[in-house]
Write a structure and sequence with these properties.
The chain is of the alpha+beta class. Helices cover about 25% and strands about 25% of the residues. The protein is globular, with a radius of gyration of 16 Å.
């Protein structure tokens, strides 16, 4: 099995961390949360020489899915995730765009497959467990690779902070429960990439994140 590698392409005015994960040997991989700026994402894929097998989505907010349908058509791959509880958000991406003055640049998203707690997704030999972590969005999922002690947590957890819960479908208590009951028990050593800003390790967040004390 080749080494798991990843690069981040910040996209949209929200500076969302679109993430390209790939195998160093086979150069197969996935794109997580192509929120927009699809030309930049495609340039990064070409620059790394990666063959993208799927698009994975963490949740249905515009800055995470706005470019998903365009990228799907360009690459000829399936969109996988999030949990179907985000179906309403995914069907209203264009309405979200009008609110943020981004109309015309994004499209509603229709995944080829929704995900549930306990399922797995993979590329090459790299298997990721799916954790349903509502709170920021009802259908938010986290992708966890046990072999690499690595998680892509989307907008559930940030370095020194947690996801917003003032958006439609948000629930602060549910969010903290998702973090404390599903993420932190995976182990202090787990490194994570999040939807905005720098990543970190679960152990540091458990000790230092003011929202988790």
């Amino acid at each position: 099995m080749g080494q798991l590698n990843g690069i981040i392409v910040p996209v949209t005015p929200f500076q969302q961390n679109c993430t390209i994960l790939f195998d160093m040997d086979t150069k197969t991989g996935v794109v997580i949360d192509p929120g927009g700026d699809v030309d930049q994402i495609r340039a990064a894929i070409d620059d790394q020489g990666v063959k993208i097998e799927q698009i994975w989505i963490t949740h249905g907010h515009i800055d995470h899915v706005g470019g998903a349908m365009e990228l799907k058509e360009a690459l000829g791959v399936d969109i996988v995730g999030p949990h179907e509880a985000d179906k309403g958000l995914l069907a209203n991406v264009e309405k979200q765009a009008q609110m943020y003055g981004m109309a015309g640049s994004v499209r509603n998203c229709t995944p080829d497959r929704y995900l549930s707690e306990g399922e797995t997704v993979s590329f090459g030999d790299h298997v990721f467990e799916v954790l349903h972590c509502p709170g920021h969005a009802p259908g938010h999922v986290v992708y966890f690779n046990r072999a690499a002690n690595f998680a892509h947590v989307g907008d559930v957890l940030f370095r020194g902070s947690v996801g917003r819960t003032d958006l439609p479908g948000g629930d602060h208590e549910a969010l903290i429960r998702s973090i404390k009951e599903k993420l932190l028990p995976l182990g202090d050593q787990v490194g994570f990439v999040c939807g905005h800003g720098p990543g970190g390790r679960f152990g540091e967040e458990r000790l230092e994140n003011p929202f988790l004390r």
